[in-house]
Here is the input.
Amino acid sequence: MGRLRQIVTNPRMIILFIFLVLAIVAIKPVPWNDGVSIRSVSAESAAAFAGIENPAQGSSLMSRERVLSINGVAVHNIQDYYSEASQLKVNKTYTVQTNKGLYRLTTQIGENNTVTDLGLRVSNAPKTNIKKGLDLQGGTRVLLQPEKQISKDEMSTLMDNMVQRLNVYGLSDVIVRQAGDLSGNQYISVEIAGVNEEEVRDLISKQGKFEATIANQTVFQGGKDITYVCRTATCSGIDPESGCGTVQGGSWACRFRFSISLTPTAAERQANLTKNLQIEGTGDIRNSYLSEPLVLYLDDKEVDSLNIGAELKGKATTDIQISGSGAGATQDEAINNALQNMKRLQTVLITGSLPVKLNVVKTDTISPVLGEQFVSNSLFIGLLAIIAVGVVISLRYKKWQVSVPIIITMISEVILLLGMAALIGWNIDIAAIAGIIVAVGTGVDDQIVITDETLMGGKSNKDSSWKTRLKYAFFIIMAAYFSTVVAMLPLLFAGAGLLKGFAITSILGVTFGVFITRPAYAAVVEILVKE
Amino acid sequence: MSKRSRRKKEKISSMEQTQLAHVEGDSKKTVSEPEHTHNYEGKKYSKIVRFYDRHYLWLLIIPVLLLAAALVQIGIQTAQTGDFIQKGISLKGGVTITIATDKIIDTAGLKSELLSQFPKLDASVRTLTSAGQSVGYVIEADLQNSADIDKGISIVETYTGIDKKEFGIETIQPSLGASFFEEVAIAMLVAFAFMAIVVFLTFRTFVPSFAAVFSVFSDMVITLAVVNLLGIKVSSAGIAAFLMLIGYSIDTDILLSTRVLKREEGSVLDRILSSVKTGLTMAGTTIVAAIIAFIFTESETLKQIMLIILIGLFVDIFNTWLQNAAILRWYVEHRGKKHGKA
Here is the structure.
């Protein structure tokens, strides 16, 4: 009993205990957390109109709003959410209960009279604040390299634009990071949870230089000349007139259209350019067109060529209809592709172009199923490894006074690391798991050094005092610690940051170990083992 | 609180003093009572220890031969392929598709299907196992442009009948693969140099510091050769494993040097033996944990990391206890004799 009190009141143990409590508060485990959590809210969607807000940038997982029920039916996971959402009807008002309030959402008409989704991107309710990295939760990561070196300012413009583009597209749950390497190459890494790669690859790798010309003269450009881009169902979508049709080879193609508003200057430019054009076609003015079409270019590639109605000749009109197309093997696929192309084009028109062309140098897509499997697998392995290490330690020392503290220390180190990750919003991915393994493995090694130095103390007077023995132990530990840390440092800067997560986790882990858990372990062993 | 911090300061300064005293004491001690290789002082040593004690310098041949063989292997490998390791897709450029499924897929059939579409393809189709059970498949191919990649993916989709939404797909441009490899190679050299500096600053004597650093060097070179011989295609994460090895490998060397140089009780042999006991326990726990992770993980990445660490830990046993220990012992005893004469 006396020893237990000694352990509990030992200052080093108290420090460890305080850190553990802080870590658990940061992780905030709530195993019974229910519902689906809102990752992002699409602009101009039913949810946005009802007042549901996007989660704040950098907010912790557990603070996100959770949908608990739709129309009175409880929602426990994303399957429940989607099955409930798929039964909604057009133009009706439904109630959505979240943990923060009750919202009334009015569904909108979608394409082909389907219901547009509520405008929410959701995921299963998190049980902790630990952010799972891409390879553990599924999603897409794209690594881009600017075609030429760009300045710091250009880089920050580029990244802002990228974030805006993704937000406008309806993805707010994105991480856009700058990365570099030792040779001075610049990279931008974009991580998006739970979206398939094709959907975003084009969006973010496009420079987005949009230009409309008549007879090779610029009429208007994306970004600066456009004041409004319509994205509601009334003035955007599959073109009701031309619609879809089969093309040669039996595949399908669909046309989309949406209206935009130009600035008065751009409208004036258009008037000037059309003033001198010929009218082609005969008879009814509604079937006549001007001799030059309006040609739309995206990144110097022609997207579409539109005939200009004869009645627009010389007129400064600010309302323009933009169109384009999408193809696919089936009609549904063609519709989908056309709508995706439309959404991308709208996004680019709103956000303007990036200062430089980007090349996609690496992409990763991980399915959520694969990710989930990795998580449970990693937990299982972690548990098994801790047990196995415990067995080896018990066989070697045959003293519970040694093996129990070592196992508790290992678990404490994992908790401290996860707490730190939750606190700074660091993603736990496979690289970070490897880092945790390094940290805990080094921890066990150090615990063994402490144990052996203290238990096997020699007989000569000088070496036999606990203080001296611990001094040797910590000399070894500190030398090993600094060697490991300096060995990991270069990885923080090398190779487009691909192994940065690994380096940070292992450095943080061994640091916690050396300054928090080792001293506590040494104190406990001293109390338990010293005669 | 202030009392505590003062005490701490005193502790640190007294630690420095004792350390200095030890270095001096060490040499004084060896002057007055030189170590005798064959004097067992009535202690009972096992046959193995007696054998080791008599022939430790001869045993040094094992790690030296291993290192030489490894250098030859790496030399041949470099001459034949131009690279000192076999680069995986993530270092070479291409696409890796991971499928988690309990469906049985004919791997050879899928590979020949891919080869029939891309005759020059360097492709592999492997089964992912966890605890001996098949849990999925990994398809690697050095497809480069996005049209080919899309075609390759759709071939896999049709062949397996699994939607690509369930795949994990990683594509990497050859340029990034090459620059990443170069970068990490530099990082590794810098890491090694930094580690060496820390070791030299810690021990401040040339031979022991060199012996420790050399042991880590041998460990990495021999591990690399074994990895090559096993035909492992190293991925970007596999390179991280080599960095982890630096840390694990230097641990035991620092332990050994500290015990042999700074401790006073017992003979050099005793101190080495006590280090062996501690060091093997350290290696034992890490090896057991790595074996478990290697067997049970469903992640190709972690599997490769664990395999490389396992190889490295086994190699490290030879390097630390036959190579570093021999050099250290020879150094301490030789130094003793020299001082004795002077």
In short: The first strand of chain B starts at residue 94 and ends at 100. The mean pLDDT of chain B is 83. Chain B has two domains: 47-85+176-341, 94-172.
